[in-house]
Design brief:
This protein is α/β, with parallel strands linked by helices. The chain has 2 domains: about 5-170, Rossmann fold (3-Layer(aba) Sandwich); about 195-300, Beta Barrel (Elongation Factor Tu (Ef-tu), domain 3), CATH 2.40.30. It is built from 8 helices and 15 strands. The chain has helices at about 5-15, 30-40, 95-110, 130-140, 155-160, 185-200, 230, 235-240, and strands spanning about 20, 45-50, 65-70, 80-85, 115-120, 145-150, 170, 200-205, 215-220, 220-225, 240-245, 250-260, 265-270, 280-290, 295-300. The longest helix has 16 residues, at about 95-110. It starts with a helix and ends in a 5-residue tail after the last strand. The mean pLDDT is about 95.
Length: about 300
């Protein structure tokens, strides 16, 4: 049975906790998440938002998941201050979903220590066997109290059918005025966000041996361990690869773009916008290649 927005809002405010948005692309998840968070804040509750839509992110740059703590009512999620982010490595969730879930779970733990209502925005990847399994795994690990399923027909029912019983599910129809964007429009939005993020980037040289990590790179049908990336993947393939520069707790310090690699010296030249990278302790290899202009250039795993 479909609920009304007022019924959903009343149920969440009566039993506060974590609330996960669920739905395909362009059904109004982010708008609803922002409205819910603002309404909860206005009642005096402490509110956080965890943005796990790594492709169309509002908190932090694309290819990341972000945590924001609300200080005032907002109309757009992008107005919420970002307090922490984790590197996912791609704007498409399918191949990096383990990192997306891990980042979301860790940010949720911090949000629960600071907020009574935590609204979790999600990607629109909901259809197909892999998507269903991934979404169910994410919900099980995040353990929300409420799931708000926005669907035009029954596209998320296969996910809902596999959820554990204690969850409260609220089904909504998308607003009539929600606008569907084309694939090109969605890509243009990501590229604009990348361009804005890297507009003030500067080049720094990093010693890979001093920045250990455990994220392998998929290349030519193999998983290349981080220790062997420079020796086994050609420099031309690594050029413009997106990387995460993380601190001791693996919180993101800055996104970077590989400008050049020096395999013999174990050095990587990276373009990054951070004023200081002194806090960086880990270099996390991504999957997506992005030019400094923001243009997406494909994925390493597709190269040979």
């Amino acid at each position: 049975m479909m609920a009304t927005w007022q019924e959903v809002l009343g149920a969440v405010l009566e039993a506060p906790g974590a609330v996960m948005m669920l739905g395909a692309v362009d059904v109004g998840k982010t708008t609803a998440a922002t409205a819910l968070a603002t309404a909860a804040l206005r009642t005096g509750l402490r509110v956080a938002v965890v943005d796990t839509d790594s492709g169309q992110s509002s908190l932090g740059p694309p290819a990341t998941v972000g945590l924001g703590i609300m200080r005032r009512p907002v109309r757009h999620m992008s107005e919420i201050p970002l307090v922490a982010a984790r590197f996912v490595g791609d704007t498409s969730p399918a191949a990096v979903y383990a990192y997306l879930i891990d980042g979301a779970v860790r940010l949720m733990a911090r949000a629960r220590a600071q907020a009574e209502v935590i609204v979790v925005d999600t990607t629109g990847w909901v259809e197909g066997t892999a998507a269903v399994a991934a979404k169910v795994a994410k919900i099980v690990q995040i353990r929300p109290r409420h799931v708000i399923a926005i669907q035009r027909a029954d596209e998320v029912e296969p996910i809902l059918a596999r959820l554990p019983c204690p969850l409260v599910v609220h089904r909504l129809r998308p607003p009539r005025n929600v606008r569907r964007r084309s694939r090109d429009e969605r890509r243009a939005f990501r590229e604009q966000r990348f361009a804005q993020y890297f507009a003030a980037a500067r080049q720094v040289t990093l010693d890979v041996t001093a920045l250990p990590g455990d994220r392998p790179v998929r290349y030519a049908g193999r998983r290349i361990s981080q220790a062997r990336v420079l020796s086994e993947i050609p420099p031309r393939v690594l050029r413009h690869l997106l990387v995460g520069l993380a601190g001791p707790d693996e919180d993101l310090v800055a996104l970077g773009i590989v400008a050049a690699v020096h395999p013999a010296a174990r050095l990587v030249d990276v373009l990054a916008p951070a004023g200081s990278l002194a806090a960086v302790r880990t270099l996390q290899w991504g999957a997506l290649r992005v030019a400094p202009s923001g243009r997406e250039e494909g994925r390493v795993r597709a190269c040979a």
